[in-house]
Amino acid sequence: MIFERTKYKYDGEIFFGVIPENKMPFWTIPTNNFYLSSYVCPECGRLMVKTVFSVDFTFSTVDGSIAVPRIFVCGKCKTLHIPSPGYKLSRNNGYYYKAKNDKEFEDIIIKLDLVGSRKGRQNTLYNETNITWY
Ligand SMILES: [Zn+2]
Q: pLDDT of 96-127, one tens digit each?
């Protein structure tokens, strides 16, 4: 699995209350450590799910190996999206991978579910310079 440089623009959306049907994440694989993210899939517009690695997890990309704190996934498009280290996904400078088929996608997700968690991490956006602190 080699991630490509992303060609997408990522948008976050936060819904208060009910998530519209057409934005609901599509997810059929039984997992423990993937949960709702605030990013919508750039291909289908549904909310993606994510998992957080307690220690940065290393992926292979066209630019070499990179270690990242979290990954975002669309179960409908079977795509995986990772930010560049130290950046938010919405910087649009990360990487993506589209699974070749359902089986490959499921295998990847089950593997990542074992090392992922639902616990957020802080101080992972060290390359972001214009963060507004509240
Ligand atoms: Zn999608």
A: 999 999 999 999 999 999 999 999 998 999 99
Greatest CA separation found in the chain? 43
Strands (E), the chain: 2-5, 11-12, 35-40, 47-61, 64-74, 79-82, 95-98, 116-117
Cα dihedral: 130, 14, 114, 58 (round 10): -30
Taking the C-alpha atoms of residue 36 and residue 46, their distance in angstroms, rounded to an integer, is 11
Cα(52) to ligand 1 centroid in Å equals 19
Token pair belonging to 117? 């968690």
CA of 39 to the centre of ligand 1 (A): 11
Instruction: Report pTM.
Output: 0.93
